[in-house]
Amino acid sequence: MKRLSWFTMLIAAAILVIAGHELPRVGDPKAPAAIHVSPRYIERGHHETGAPNFVTAVLADYRSYDTLGETTVIFTAGLACALILGIGLGRSGDGGDA
After folding, report:
1. For residues 20 and 8, what is the distance between their CA atoms, to the nearest angstrom?
2. What is the pLDDT of residues 83-95, one digit of tens each?
3. Element holding 32 (H helix, E strand)
4. What tens digit of pLDDT does each residue of 29-63 get?
5. In total, how many domains does the chain have?
6. Nearest CA to 41 among 64, 60, 56, 57?
7. Does residue 6 fall inside a structural domain?
8. What is the residue-wise DSSP string for 46-97?
9. CA distance 19 to 15
10. Domain residues for 55?
11. Is residue 97 part of a domain?
């Protein structure tokens, strides 16, 4: 069973390494994001969204569902931490009623 786990882990690692080599280099001016996405945001961002700056246009309009998902995950994690620590539950902490 342990050999099967190691074999599966090695296969997964090999797939990740191969996939990583297929990605464009960081800052590559010929990458798809630099050729297609960025020019559209810069040229048509204000006209399409009406946002006052590019950051607001990208985060609030173009990627709003993604931003909402990230905010939901962070809120859920904070709520889980608060529940685990018992913050705001109104417990007295003395161990019982006197």
Report:
1. 18
2. 998 876 665 555 5
3. helix 32-32
4. 888 888 888 888 888 888 888 888 888 888 888 88
5. 1
6. 57
7. no
8. HHHH--SSHHHIIIIIITHHHHHHHHHHHHHHHHHHHHHHTTTS---SSSS-
9. 6
10. 37-87
11. no
